[in-house]
Amino acid sequence: MKTVDLNKKQTAILQTFGPQLEKSGTMYRLWVGFLLLMILFGGYGLFRQIYIGHVVTGMRDHAVWGYYIANFVYFIGVSYGTAMLAAILYYFKVPWGRPIIRIAALVAFISGVIGPVFILLCIGRFDRLHYLFIHARVQSPITWDVMVISTYLVGITVFTYLLLIKDFAILRDTDKFEFPSWRKKLYNALALRYTGTSEQDQQIGHSTKSMAFIMVPKVVLAFAVLSWIFGMTLRPGWRSSIFGPSYVIASIATGIALIIGVMWVYRKLYKLEDYLKDEHFRYMSLILIALVGAFGYFTLSEYITSWYTSMTWESKVTDKLLSFKEFGWAFHLANFFGIILPIVVIAFRRFRTPTIITALSLLVVFAMWVRRYLTVVPPLETPLLPIQDARPEYVHYSATWVEWSLVLAGAATFFIFFTLVPKLINVVPISDYEKETN
Amino acid sequence: MSESSENGRRDFLKKGALGVTLAAWGQLVFSCAPEGGHDHAAAEGADTVKVLTPDGQLVEVDQSHLRHVHHTQDISYEESRTGLPGRKFVMVIDLARCTNARKCVTACQKMHHLPPDKEWLTVKLMKDSEDSEPYWFPKTCYHCDNPPCVKVCPVDATFKRQDGLVLVDNTRCIGCKFCMTACPYSTRVFNWGERGEPADMKTHRANAETSIPGQVGTVEKCDFCPDMARMGQLPDCVVACPNGAFYFGDQNEDIVTNGSETVRFTELIAERAGYRYGEELGTEPRVYYLPPTDRIFPAEKGLEELPEESRKLYEDLF
Amino acid sequence: MKRSKSKYLQCSLGFRPRALALSLAMMLGLLSGNVLLAQEEAEENEPLRTRMSLSAVQGDEDMATCKALVRAKIDGRYTGIPGLEVVFFSITDSLEQELGRATTGMDGIASLRLPKAKLLADTSGAFPIMAIFEGNEEFGDSDDEITITPASIALEAMEEDSSRTVTATLESMGEPVAETDIYFYVKGLYRPLRVGEGTTDEEGMVSIDFPMDLPGGPEGNVEVLVRLEDDSDFGTVEANVSKAWGTPKLMAGDSPPRELWSPSPPLWLLLTFITLLLIIWGHYLEVIYKLFKLRKKAAEN
Ligand code: SF4
Ligand code: SF4
After folding, report:
1. Which chain C residues contact residue B24 at CB under 8 A?
2. Is the pLDDT of residue B34 over 60?
3. How far is residue A135's CA from residue B158's CA, in Å, rounded to a whole number?
4. Around A320, how many Cα atoms within 13 Å sit in the side-chain half-sphere?
5. Same domain (yes/no): C64, C104
C-alpha cells in the first residue's frame, strides 16, 4: 500500500513532537490526576444535585439561573467564536493562520462539548430530556437552540476531523516512533485510507472548504439563537437589540484570548518557537484588541442609553451594575481589565511580546466570564415587582460549593483535553507544510 | 389569632402545672396550640388537628372536617388541556379592600398543600412614587392572553387553555425555568427540593389542573383552581378573603363575584376604572385591578399581620 | 315534637364513648382533690358545640330542597363543617316521618331535594320540617325546625321590539300573594347576578325590564331565576326559565390558533425552521458521504 511521503520540514516537525507523542513524565501524570480529581469532585456535586434536587445550588425563585447558565453561555460562545475564526482563517487561506487553525478548531470543539453540559446541569428533570425532541415546540427559543447546538456540534466535529485526517495518515505511516498497537489501529481507522493522492487531497480540501464556508452563517445563526434565549424575554438588560452583536464580539474575543493562552503554553512546553512565532501572537493580539474595543463600545452604548433615558425597570438593572454596593466592583473591574487595559497596553508596539499578550489574554478570559455572569444574574435579581422576601437567598444569588465544583470541573475538562490532545496528535499540522520545500 | 393561641397555651400549661389529672386525657397531654396558629396545625399531617375554640378550649377535630382537599377530577388529559368549554375566566382585585389580611395566601397554601414558605399568591406592598401612599397588592398568576411564559416553553408543559387559564403540566415540565425568566410578574415558583406535602397526596393521580402531587425539579404556580370551577366553586383565595377583595368569574357571561356580591364585570371595570398591571408589556393579563382609592384602612395596618422580621422589608416604604 | 326531639338526644347520648371517659376523669379528679379544675378540664373534652340553621327552597316542578347548615365556632369564627350526616323529618302533630339523610358539603350545608308531595302538611296546609344532626365524638348535636307554606312562582319571559320583559306571578294555595318583594337574577357559573326586583301587585304579579346585553352562558342561554327570599311564611320560593337571549361562545370546528403561545406554531416559523435544518443537514450529509467515498476509492486503488 502507498504511504504518505514527507518532506524535510515535515519530518522536522514530526521529530519535534516525537517525545511528547511517545511518553509522558511524572509531572504530567500528576497534573492529569489532579484534573481528574477535580472532575470527580464535580461529579460528586452533580450526584448531590440529582439526588437531593436543586436546593443544593444557590439558585432560587428569582435568580433561577446562575453559574450554570453563565458558564454555558461562556463556553458555547467561545466555541462559536473560535469556530468562526478557524473557518475564516481556513477559507481565506490567511497565510499566518495555518498553525492557529487547528488550535482554534480544537478549542471550538471542546468548548462546544463543555457548554451544553452546563445547560443540562441547570435543568430540573434529567429524566425528561427526551421530551425536548418528542414534545418539541417550534415556538420556543430553547427548541431552536437544541437544534442549532446539535447541528453545530456535528459541524464542528466534522470540520475538526477533516483538518486532522492527513496528520492521522502521517502518524499511521511513520516508522519513527514505537506506538502501542491500539494506537496504530486508531490512527489507521481515523486516517480513512488517505494516502496522499492528489484526488484525495482535492476531495478533503473541497470538503473542508465547504464546511468552513457554511460554518460562518451557521455560527451567526447559532449566536443569534443563543442571544435570543435572553432577548426573547421581557427582562431589561436582556431585551436589547445590541445584546446579540455584543455577545458575538465578546465571545470571539474570549475565544482568541483562549487560543493565545493555549498557543503560549504549547510553544513553551514543546519548543514550537519556529512554528508559533512572535508574529502570530502579534496578529492575534491586534484582532483581540479590535474586538475588545468593539465590545467596549457596545457596552457603553447599551448602558449609557439606558442610564440616560432612565426608564424605571431598565435603569434599576443599570444602577445595580454601576453601584459599588451591588455589582459595581465586578462590573468596573471586568471592564478595566477586560477592555481598557488590553487596549492601552497592546497599543504600544514594544509591549507586544508573547508573554505580555498572553497575560492580558488571561485577564480578558476572566473578565469576559465576569461580564457573562453580570448579564445573566442582575436582570434576574431585578424583577418588575419588588422582591419582598425575608429569605436572603431568595433575594441575592450566591453560588454554593456544588456549583463551584461543577464550574471547576468544566474548566478542568478544558485543561485535560488540551493536555491529552498533544499525546494523540501533533498540535502543529504537519500536512500543511507539504508544499514548503517541494 | 396568634395572640389567642398564645393565651390558650399559657392557660393550658398553667393548669397542667397545678397537677390536674391529665393522664385521663390521653393524647391531649401533649397538646399545645402550635405557634403560628391553626394553619400550621393543619399542615402537621396527622389525622386530627387541635383547634382552639373561642372560650380558650382545645379540641381535637378530624382533619378532614377542616381541610378542604382539592380532589382530582376524573377528567381526560384532553379536557385538562382544553378547559371548560365556552368559559373565559377573569379576576378583578379591589386594591381598596386589601388590608394584607393574608387569608388568601394561607388558604391557597392549605388547599394546594404548599409549605408555609411557598406562595403561589403573594401580597406585595407597592408604592408608586415618592409622595404617593403605599398600598397592598395581591398578585396571582395573571393568566395572560399573550403569555410570554407559554411562548418560551420548549415542551408544551405550560400551556394556555381555551377558557383562558395558563396551567403547568408538572408531569411534562423538564424544569428548564425558562418560563420563570420570561414571566415579567415573577409568578412562577420552582420545586427546588421535595415539596413536603402530606403522604396521602403523593398517590394522587397527576393532573394538569391541580399540580398535585408536586414534583421536584418542576415549575408550578397559581392555577385559578380549575378543579373547583368544575364543581361550580370559587377559588380558595376568593372565598377566604374577609374583605371580599377578589372578584372572580366568567368574562364570557360578564358576571364576577366575590362570594357575597355579584356584579357585571364590564360595569365594575368601567365604574371603578379597572386596569391591568403592566399593560405596556403586551402580556394582556386576565386579572384586573381596581385602584386603591377611598381605602378604609391605612396601609400600615397590614403590617400587623406580619411577623417582626418581615416587617423590616417594608420599612422604607412608609 | 318536643318528645321526638328528646328521644333523639337520648339515643345519641347513649352512644357517646367520650361520656365514659369524662366521668372517669371527673372521678380521678375528685380523688386528687382538684374538683373544680378537673371539671374545667372535663369541659374541654366536650364535643364542639354546633349550630344548625334550616331553610327550604320551593322550586319548579313541585320540588322542594331542604338545606341544613351546620356550623361550629372554630378559632373564633363560625365555620361550616363538612362531612356530617343530617337527618330530615316531616313532623305534624299526629305523624312523623323521616324524609331522608344528607351529608354536609365543603360549605357545611346538607341539602335534600324531594317532591313537595312527600312532605306532610299540618291542618293549615303548611309543611313543618325538622333537621337533626345527632352529634359525634367531635361535634355536639344540633337541630332546627321550620314551617313553610306552599307557594310557587309562575314565570314568563318575553321579547318584543328590542325590549325584554320578565313577569313573575306568586301564588300560594291557589291564591295570588300581593305586597311581596321578588328578586330577579341571571344564573352565573358561580353566583347569580341580580338584574331587578319588584313588589307583587294585587294579582301577585311583578315584571321587570330585562337587560338586553347580557351574554349568557356558554351556549348563549340566559337562565332567568326569580326568587322570593327567606320569607317567614314561604321560605325561599324560586322559579327559572332559560332563554336563548345571549351569544353562544362554543364555536364548533374552530381549529386551535397558530400563535407563539399556542401548541401549534405559526406556519412561516415552522417552514423557516425546517428549511434551515434541511439546508445545513443536507450539506453535512454531502460532506460525510464524500468522506465515505474517499475511503472506498482508496480501497479500490
Ligand atoms: S402572569 Fe406570568 S406566569 Fe402567569 S400567564 Fe402571565 S406571564 Fe405567565
Ligand atoms: S420550566 Fe417547565 S414549564 Fe417552564 S418552560 Fe421549562 S419545561 Fe416549560
Report:
1. 21, 24-25, 28-29
2. no
3. 12
4. 18
5. yes
Give the count of domains, chain C. Answer: 3
Q: Cβ neighbours of residue C158 under 8 Å, at least 6 residues apart?
A: C164, C165, C166, C167
Residue A68, in any domain of the structure: no
Q: Does C264 map to a domain?
A: no
Domain ranges of chain B: 3-69, 88-290
Pocket probe mutation, ligand 1, options B185, B189, B219, max atoms within 8 Å of Cβ? B185
d(CA B252, CA C219): 11
**Complex-level ipTM:** 0.90
CA distance B158 to B185: 16
pLDDT level of residue C30 (50, 70, 90 thresholds): very low
Three-state DSSP class for A159?
Answer: helix
Q: pLDDT value at position A49?
A: 93
- The residue segments making up the domain with residue C129 are 50-147
The answer on C160 and C84 residing in a single domain is no
Average pLDDT estimate for C169-178: 89
The secondary element (H helix, E strand) that includes residue A376 is helix A354-380
| One domain, residues C75 and C140 | yes
C135 and C78 fall within a common domain: yes
- Summarised one tens digit per residue, pLDDT across range A287-339 is 999 999 999 999 999 999 888 988 889 889 999 999 999 999 999 999 999 99
DSSP string, chain B: -HHHHHHHHHHHHHHHHTT--GGGGGGGGG--PPTT-HHHHHHT--SEEEEE-TTS-EEEEEHHHH---PPPP---HHHHHH-STT--EEEEEEGGG-----HHHHHHHHHTT--TT--SSEEEEE--STTSPPEEEEE-----SS-HHHHH-TTS-EEE-TTS-EEE-TTT-----HHHHH-TT---EE-SS-----HHHHTSPP-TTT--S--TT-EE-----HHHHHTT---HHHHH-TT--EEEEETTTTEEE-SS-EEEHHHHHHHTT-B-TTGGGT---SEEEE---S-SS-GGGGGGGS-HHHHGGGGGG-
User: How many domains does chain A fold into?
Assistant: 1
Is residue C254 assigned to a domain? no
Indicate if C172 and C123 belong to the same structural domain. Answer: no
CA gap C278, C284 in Å, rounded: 10
Write b or e for each residue in C217-230: b if 16 or more Cβ atoms lie within 10 A of its Cβ, otherwise e: bbebebbbbbbbee
Q: Would the CB atoms of A233 and B192 count as touching at under 8 Å?
A: no
Instruction: State residue A270's pLDDT score.
Output: 84
Cβ–Cβ under 8 Å, residues C137 and C17: yes
Q: How far apart are the first and last CA of chain C?
A: 114
Taking contacts as CB-CB distances below 8 angstroms, the residues of chain C near A191 are none
Contact C288 A158 (CB under 8 A): yes
Contact (Cβ atoms closer than 8 angstroms) between residue A88 and residue A159: no
Find chain C residues with C-beta within 8 A of B57's C-beta: 43-44, 46
Does ligand 2 lie within 6 Å of residue B191's CB atom?
no
C295 in any annotated domain: no
Residue with cell 377611598: B294
Domain membership of residue A356 (yes or no) is yes
Nearest to C269 among A138, A194, A206 (CB): A138
Structural domain that includes position A264: 233-386
* Mutation choice for B interface testing from A46, A57, A385, A393 by most B CBs within 10 A: A385
- pTM to 2 decimals? 0.83
pLDDT > 90 fraction of chain A, expressed in percent and rounded? 65
Q: Is B305 on the interface with A (CB under 8 A)?
A: no
Task: Say yes or no: CB of residue B175 within 6 Å of ligand 2.
Answer: yes
Put simply, whether B182 touches A (Cβ < 8 Å) is yes
Domain B88-290 has CATH 3.30.930.10: no
Q: What is the position in ligand 1's atom list of the atom closest to the CA of B150?
A: 8
Residue C164 lies in a domain: yes
